[in-house]
């Protein structure tokens, strides 16, 4: 829970040759630091960190007395004792020079009663030597013992020396007189009679009542005495049995622990047994061989151990360099032996995890000689070992031979000193002058309902929230946000109250409160403002010494009133100014050490071992709200707590050892137990229900006392605990559990086991169970409902030391430390532990309640993987294997198949037989995937089968899967399967797969060149090779790129085209190395392509060819007379509209029956084209109604029909002149009318809803006797003015303007396919695609292709029949197509002429005649008859009509060709 941040500070000292840094030690309140060198003593002040005074001995003194070694401060900081290598004890006197200060900072505080104040006063001091004392035998160790010094000599004497230099010989202790044993009861006692035994290290443990010692031979023990005076005759020693090579000691008074550092690079931590007095091993401090192979041996002996001031972390250093930080019970927080700590620029070594050697520590800047923690543990002062100078070295670092004085900066969890309940719900850290809070988790969960019910201290949600966003978003950003929100404390408060001592965040995470040296301040994240005391005197008169916490919108503070010299509990409302006038003050008889809140109950622990409970009540009677405390109960813990400072935390919970019903509402769950953490032991005092209880109505009237039973020990080695904060019916197990952080052991969860209705109550069955599990992170917060633990981890950023502008710390090779949030899932650990204990039913209940979690499948995979690794790699047989139970458990969930294959692919192949012996045959699992259509999972099983089976079996299953994926359109997976099949050879199963297709593969669809937006998109969005490069189609349609504009581009284009694998010819290359497998695979692909084309799924065919690089053009040439035939053109046209989401043409604004006569159409279009209102084309917003909006919503409006929306008013029956006038107004005038949209019930048509929305079938527009275009009114097609090509083109352009086309992507796909089919001479489909696009140029191109190439006569005949069928369909069902189809009469006549000629049309002259000629009336009439008969499907009549055209001469054919050329020139269409 301690994490380094920022650059380490390098403190400069006066450099003297051969004056080596030796030691650093702080006084009791951590304000003064004594830094020893071989010859001098320097005194530093903490804030600001400046050098105050120093004393340097003369060279003669160093020669006579020896060099300085270690030092000790007098408890009142008025004297300093220094030992020397010559066996002398030097006493220095520290005097303050009057009331003056050496440094003073001026700061304008903006307070009401002060303008400018002096803060951070650095006192002026004077140091002088007071005396010396020679210790015979030399000084081995020294420690301050009350008002004396306990000095260990080399003769085995513990000498008690007063600060005036006088030795108290009567109280001195000889090591030979001390009796050592294993415990203090009946164990055998021995005395150390052998000569030369002495105490090499000694550490005073006041709360344990003794001294921790290390003998000269490496053995360790603990000295204790029955009296506090520590008389020599009563001293007794207890051995630390497993320590045989001890090197250093550190004692933890808060947790009652003693840590011994050993010469093998490890540490052993002991706890004192309160009953026997023996030393019991609590845990060991050793680096993992997995992460740091042989690091302890390479690092050398442990040289220094230092506990933090709050006792929550232990710093360890090694002889050869390196620093480690451990939590109180052995969880590793930091280790500089791995990563980038201390890497020098240009060094040839690396501190990688797999290489630890002596060379790795040569230039390590963290070769620590001594260290000391600063105030509140925010700084670690370090003296380093001098670096060896290198001869002829130009590096400035070679001149530094005295060592460095470093200061590492740390932030820590707020739980270390203020373990209130609200701090457990957030990831909340505190530094010396700033706060770190992670706002991405529980802040987002707090909604307005919780705030209104008092769940948040913010009574009314302000309009502006914090940067995390509104709280109503829910847990969607639960795990994702890893950003820290750093809150800087105001300088006005820090100037006199540095550093932060206590910090608390409210339950919602909206407000924080801090307390420093004096006073307090609070901050709201939504207003981003601090509130300080307006009256500075009130701030300076209170000292927060027991913590602070939030209750709704009140701050509860346990403080000491300096003005009245008493302890108090104060409640400050957040909404009012920070002033004692608005506070509720309650006196307490003793100092408050801990405070916590459970719902509306305040729990207070005082120095007299008593726990007092208060009921908190909010009153809104005054202008500012107030809180009233009413005492409920007082409980003594004197029999269970050895010392008040050993009580780590306490809280009230609703937990009981006997679990209540899971359906009990949250409101009925009151305080059922008191849980306290005493030096790492968790005790639970349950409410005594055996006594008469009060009625519910009496409970609500006044708070009642809660009698408690004797405590029960729940767990040991507990650092933190997270009690449930709410209740959930969906996840009762997780929300009603107690979570414990236990250091190196990991975490423990006290899980409830809810009985089912079928279970009979058994007295011998426990209602709760304690489950331990390991963690990879240090837990700082637990998200109960999400089964996630949050923590923090440190990382470093290295820079080149020679880079200009970097700080001096970087130039010394020290890294920049950063901190990041970490997350770990714990659900699989719980499930595994329950299954191991045969509690699978409860595990199933928990798992089913968590299936909605997005990472639930990952939880199952983790559980299976861990069990498999543990059992398959076990050296001995496992009698009761857990894997079968885990597999049976996972089989209950639909993720079973996916979990098994993912676990197998992430596991070594050697473990697969053990896995599939339990799970089942992978063949059977593969078949299950096929049946359940889990094709991606089945593809993963192919990798398993490839390694376990022969190539034939793998090929068989891959082929089976390929068939299924082809049928379901999984094109990306199909591509991978094809590559997989091609990689499997008959003789070489490990042959490498073929390379992926080039970017310019002709099977990939190009960009659209018809719309402005087509350049930024591909023709088929699922095309794998078109994601990054823009393509266009060339004129030859073979390479889908534009023709190169230069010679180099042409060369690149041709070379790239040559690199395309010719898969068409691979079928016939058996003689040149091809295999039967290759031929079989191509056969599968060809069969599926034939299937897609036979059912008219051209879009799927295009995707199929794009992803699988299928040679579509060559294959279509072969199939043009077989599967590429169009049997039903009408249904094929409808399928194209459906597949490509292409709407059928319609007249959205006016009915076709209301269009003007043909003679007015040209005039109307000319007016609309030349009018000022339509110079850029017909406006899409006609009469106030947006065509695009209507079509985008899937509805095409048609007047007088039952489709979509119609614009009203529109005349239903008007004369032809009125219709003409209305049309002219719509198209030419700039006037508009207000349109009223009214929904009309749509009529399903064509079998699908999509088509019914866009079809133009109406009951009013068509009938058997009348034509929409006015056949009966204006005559037949050939004789009416509609037969004019110019007027038909105008009408077609008019309808194209009024109709909404499909998506640009669909247009690009249709045009690409039309070109592909044209190039492959599949003219029937090409004609249909051109009709769908309503592109007369494309239709003309298709007809020209039919006339200029050797096309089969039957294909041309079917094309002519297709136009006839479409004309009849347009007459009866879709009038929107009639203008376009009637405009194609000349092309239809050309096809008729080709059919009648019974021979292939030769290539016509490319030079059209000057004057286009129209076909003869007979030809036109015959074509109409052919269209009429063909539309009715009368093949016999059709053949007769063909025979009547047999006599057409070449001149007639030439006339047809000339007319085609005339039509092409007349349309004047351009393709953009």
Give the helix tally. Answer: 40
- State the secondary-structure class: alpha+beta
Average pLDDT rating: 76
| Low-pLDDT ranges | 112-117, 343-357, 390-400, 441-479, 660-668, 694-701, 988-1074, 1148-1283, 1399-1472
Computed Rg = 45 Å
Number of strands: 61
Distance between the termini: 66 Å
> Strand portion, in percent?
25-35%
User: Considering DSSP H and I runs of 4 or more, what fraction of the residues is helical?
Assistant: 25-40%
Characterize the biggest β-sheet. Answer: 8 strands, antiparallel
List keywords for this structure.
26% strand; 1472 residues; alpha+beta; 61 strands; elongated; 8-stranded antiparallel β-sheet; single chain; 28% helix
Short recap of the structure:
The protein is of the alpha+beta class and 1472 residues long. Helix content is 28%, strand content 26%.
Write structural notes for this entry.
With 1472 residues, this protein is of the alpha+beta class. Helices cover 28% and strands 26% of the residues. The chain has 40 helices and 61 strands. Strands 1, 2, 29, 30, 31, 32, 33 and 34 form an eight-stranded antiparallel beta sheet that branches. Strands 16-15-20-19-18-17 form a six-stranded mixed beta sheet, with no helix packed on it. Helix 12 packs antiparallel against helix 13 and helix 25 crosses helix 33. It is elongated. It starts with a strand and ends in a 5-residue tail after the last helix.
């Amino acid at each position: 829970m301690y994490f380094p941040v920022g650059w380490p500070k390098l403190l400069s000292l006066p450099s003297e040759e051969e004056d080596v840094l030796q030691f650093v030690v702080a006084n009791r309140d951590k304000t003064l630091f004594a830094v020893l060198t071989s010859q001098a003593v320097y005194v530093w002040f903490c804030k600001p960190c400046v050098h105050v005074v120093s004393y340097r001995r003369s060279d003669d003194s160093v020669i006579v007395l020896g060099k300085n070694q270690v030092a000790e401060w007098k408890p009142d900081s008025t004297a300093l004792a220094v030992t020397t290598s010559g066996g002398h004890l030097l006493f220095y006197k520290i005097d303050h020079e009057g009331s003056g200060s050496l440094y003073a900072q001026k700061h304008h505080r903006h307070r009401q009663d002060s303008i400018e104040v002096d803060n951070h006063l650095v006192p002026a001091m004077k140091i002088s030597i007071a005396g010396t004392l020679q210790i015979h035998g030399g000084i081995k160790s020294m420690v301050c013992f009350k008002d004396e010094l306990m000095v260990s000599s080399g003769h085995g004497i513990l000498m008690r020396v007063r600060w005036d230099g006088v030795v108290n010989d009567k109280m001195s202790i000889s090591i030979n007189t001390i009796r050592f044993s294993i415990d203090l009861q009946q164990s055998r006692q021995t005395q150390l009679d052998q000569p030369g035994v002495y105490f090499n290290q000694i550490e005073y443990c006041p709360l344990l009542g003794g001294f921790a010692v290390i003998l000269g031979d490496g053995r360790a023990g603990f000295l204790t005495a029955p009296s506090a005076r520590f008389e020599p005759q009563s001293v007794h020693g207890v051995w630390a049995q497993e320590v045989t090579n001890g090197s250093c000691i550190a004692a933890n008074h808060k947790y009652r622990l003693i840590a011994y550092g050993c010469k093998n690079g490890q540490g052993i931590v002991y706890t004192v047994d309160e009953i026997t007095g023996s030393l019991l091993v609590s845990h060991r401090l050793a680096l993992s061989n997995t992460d740091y192979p042989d690091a302890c041996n390479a690092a050398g002996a442990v040289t220094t151990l230092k506990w933090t001031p709050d006792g929550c972390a232990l710093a360890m250093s090694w002889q050869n360099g390196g620093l480690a930080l451990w939590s109180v019970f052995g969880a590793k927080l930091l280790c500089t032996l791995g990563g980038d700590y201390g890497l020098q620029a240009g060094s040839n070594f690396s501190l990688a995890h797999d290489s630890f050697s002596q060379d790795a520590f040569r230039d390590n800047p963290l070769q620590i000689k001594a260290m000391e923690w600063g105030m509140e543990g925010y700084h670690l002062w370090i003296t380093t070992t001098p670096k060896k100078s290198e001869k002829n070295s130009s590096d400035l670092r070679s001149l530094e031979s005295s060592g460095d004085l470093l200061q590492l900066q740390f932030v820590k969890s707020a739980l270390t000193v203020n373990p209130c309940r609200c701090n457990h719900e957030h990831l909340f850290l505190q530094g010396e002058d700033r706060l770190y809070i992670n706002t991405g988790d529980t802040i987002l969960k707090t909604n307005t309902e919780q705030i209104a019910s008092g769940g948040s201290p913010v009574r009314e949600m302000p309009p502006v929230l914090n940067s995390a966003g509104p709280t109503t978003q829910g847990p969607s950003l639960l795990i994702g946000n890893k950003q820290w929100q750093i809150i800087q404390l105001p300088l006005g408060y820090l100037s006199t109250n540095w550093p932060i001592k206590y910090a608390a965040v409210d339950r919602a995470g909206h407000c924080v409160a801090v307390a420093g040296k004096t006073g307090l301040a609070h901050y709201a994240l939504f207003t981003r403002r601090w509130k300080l005391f307006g009256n500075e005197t009130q701030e300076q008169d209170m000292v927060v010494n027991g913590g602070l916490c939030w209750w709704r919108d009140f701050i509860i503070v346990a403080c000491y009133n300096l003005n009245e010299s008493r302890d108090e509990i104060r409640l400050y409302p957040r909404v009012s100014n920070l002033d004692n006038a608005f506070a509720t003050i309650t006196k307490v008889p003793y100092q408050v050490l801990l405070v916590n809140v459970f719902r509306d109950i305040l729990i207070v622990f005082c120095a007299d071992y008593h726990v007092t409970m208060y009921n908190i009540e909010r009153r809104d009677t005054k202008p500012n709200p107030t809180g009233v405390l009413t005492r409920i109960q007082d409980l003594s813990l004197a029999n269970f707590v050895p010392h008040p400072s050993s009580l780590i935390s306490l809280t009230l919970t609703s937990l009981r050892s006997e679990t209540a019903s899971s359906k009990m509402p949250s409101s009925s769950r009151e305080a059922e137990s008191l849980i306290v953490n005493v030096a790492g032991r968790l005790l639970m005092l349950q409410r005594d229900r055996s006594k008469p209880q009060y009625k519910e109505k009496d409970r609500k009237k006044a708070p009642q006392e809660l009698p408690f039973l004797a405590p029960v020990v729940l767990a040991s080695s507990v650092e933190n605990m997270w009690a449930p904060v709410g209740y959930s019916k969906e996840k009762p197990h997780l929300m009603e559990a107690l979570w414990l952080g236990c250091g190196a052991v990991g975490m423990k969860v006290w899980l409830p086991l809810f009985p089912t209705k079928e279970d009979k109550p058994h007295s011998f069955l426990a209602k709760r169970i304690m489950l331990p599990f390991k963690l990879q992170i240090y837990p700082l917060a637990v998200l109960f409902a999400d089964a996630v633990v949050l923590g923090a981890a440190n990382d470093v950023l290295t820079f080149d030391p020679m880079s200009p502008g970097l700080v001096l710390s970087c130039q010394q090779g020290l890294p920049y430390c950063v901190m990041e949030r970490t997350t770990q899932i714990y659900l699989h650990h719980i499930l595994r532990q329950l299954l191991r204990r045969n509690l699978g039913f409860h595990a199933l209940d928990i798992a089913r309640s968590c299936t909605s979690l997005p990472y639930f499948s990952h939880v199952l995979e983790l559980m299976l993987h861990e069990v498999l690794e543990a059992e398959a790699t076990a050296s001995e047989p496992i009698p009761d294997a857990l894997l079968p139970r885990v597999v049976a458990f996972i089989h209950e969930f639909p993720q079973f198949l996916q979990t098994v294959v993912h676990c197998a692919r992430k596991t070594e192949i050697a473990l697969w037989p053990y896995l599939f012996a339990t799970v089942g045959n992978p063949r059977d699992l593969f078949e299950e995937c096929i049946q359940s259509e889990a094709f991606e999972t089945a593809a993963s099983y192919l990798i398993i089968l490839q390694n376990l089976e022969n190539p034939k079996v793998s090929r068989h299953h891959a082929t089976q899967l390929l068939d299924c994926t082809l049928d379901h359109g999984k094109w990306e997976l199909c591509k991978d399967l094809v590559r997989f099949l091609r990689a499997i050879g008959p003789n070489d199963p490990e042959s490498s797969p073929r390379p992926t297709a080039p970017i310019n593969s002709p099977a990939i669809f190009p960009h659209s060149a018809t719309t402005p937006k087509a350049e930024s998109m591909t023709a088929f969005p699922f095309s794998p090779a078109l994601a990054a490069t823009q393509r266009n189609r060339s004129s030859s349609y073979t390479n889908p790129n534009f023709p190169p504009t230069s010679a180099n581009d042409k060369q690149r284009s041709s070379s790239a085209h040559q690199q395309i694998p010719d898969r068409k010819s691979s079928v016939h290359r058996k003689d040149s190395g091809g295999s039967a497998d290759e031929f079989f695979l191509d056969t599968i692909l060809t069969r599926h392509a034939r299937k897609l084309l036979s059912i008219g799924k051209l879009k799927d065919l295009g995707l199929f060819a794009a992803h699988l690089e299928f040679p579509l053009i060559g294959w279509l040439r072969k199939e043009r007379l077989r599967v590429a035939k169009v049997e039903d053109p009408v249904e094929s046209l409808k399928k194209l509209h459906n597949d490509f989401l292409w709407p059928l043409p319609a007249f959205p604004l006016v009915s076709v029956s209301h269009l003007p006569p043909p003679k007015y159409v040209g005039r109307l279009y000319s007016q609309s084209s030349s009018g000022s209102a339509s110079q850029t084309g017909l406006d899409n917003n006609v009469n106030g109604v947006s065509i695009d909006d209507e079509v985008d919503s899937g509805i095409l409006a048609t007047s007088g029909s039952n489709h979509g929306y119609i614009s009203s008013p529109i005349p239903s029956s008007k004369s032809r002149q009125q219709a003409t006038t209305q049309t002219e107004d719509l198209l030419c005038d700039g006037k508009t009318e207000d349109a009223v949209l009214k929904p009309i019930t749509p009529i399903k048509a064509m079998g699908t809803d999509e088509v019914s929305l866009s079809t133009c079938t109406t009951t009013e527009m068509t009938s058997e006797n009348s034509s929409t275009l006015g056949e009966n009114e204006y005559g037949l097609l050939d004789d009416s003015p509609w037969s004019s090509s110019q007027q038909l083109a105008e009408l077609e352009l008019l309808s194209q303007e009024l109709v909404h086309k499909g998506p640009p992507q669909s247009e690009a796909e249709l045009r690409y396919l039309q070109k592909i089919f044209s190039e492959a001479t599949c003219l029937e489909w090409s004609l249909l695609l051109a009709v769908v696009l309503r592109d007369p140029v494309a239709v003309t191109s298709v007809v020209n292709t039919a006339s200029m190439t050797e096309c089969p006569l039957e294909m041309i005949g079917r094309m002519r029949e297709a136009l006839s069928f479409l004309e009849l369909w347009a007459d009866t069902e879709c009038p929107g197509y009639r203008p376009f189809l009637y405009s194609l009469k000349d092309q239809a006549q050309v096809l008729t002429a080709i059919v009648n000629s019974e021979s292939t049309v030769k290539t016509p002259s490319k030079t059209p005649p000057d004057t286009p000629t129209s076909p003869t009336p007979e030809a036109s009439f015959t074509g109409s008859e052919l269209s009429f008969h063909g539309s009715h499907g009368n093949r016999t009549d059709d053949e007769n009509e063909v025979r009547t055209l047999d006599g057409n001469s070449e001149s007639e054919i030439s006339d047809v060709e000339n007319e085609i050329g005339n039509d092409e020139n007349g349309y004047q269409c351009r393709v953009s």
